[in-house]
Amino acid sequence: MENDHGELVDLYVPRKCAASGRLIEAKDHSSVQIAVCDVDENGKMIPGSTTNIPISGAIRHHGESDDSLNRIAQQMGCMYFSAL
């Protein structure tokens, strides 16, 4: 929720799982949020610029977090797969 000045006033802002699109609840203690640094065209890290990828505990419990991170990285253009 925002006030009249456009500032966030909520104590808790729920996250959404990047793999499944489900909301990550406050009591989901097995969820993780991975910060991936952004890079410029030369492959150098841009200081202070990261992309956060939240993964819910349900995805981790089923052992799908590695595949999900690979798929998300491919959608972001960070990783490329070649067909054999």
From TrEMBL:
Any one GO MF annotation of this record: structural constituent of ribosome
InterPro entries: Ribosomal_eS21, Ribosomal_eS21_sf
GO cellular component: cytosolic ribosome; ribonucleoprotein complex
Chief place where the protein resides: cytoplasm
Gene3D superfamilies linked: 3.30.1230.20
Residues annotated as signal peptide: none
Keyword Transferase: no
Pfam families to which the protein is assigned, alphabetical: Ribosomal_S21e
GO annotation, biological process: ribosomal small subunit biogenesis; rRNA processing; translation
Keyword line: Cytoplasm, Ribonucleoprotein, Ribosomal protein, rRNA processing
Subcellular localization(s) per the UniProt record: Cytoplasm
Role this protein plays: Required for the processing of the 20S rRNA-precursor to mature 18S rRNA in a late step of the maturation of 40S ribosomal subunits. Has a physiological role leading to 18S rRNA stability.
UniProt family annotation: Belongs to the eukaryotic ribosomal protein eS21 family.
PANTHER family to which the protein is assigned, alphabetical: 40S RIBOSOMAL PROTEIN S21
Subunit structure and binding partners: Component of the small ribosomal subunit.
Record protein name field: 40S ribosomal protein S21
Organism: Malassezia globosa (strain ATCC MYA-4612 / CBS 7966) (Dandruff-associated fungus)
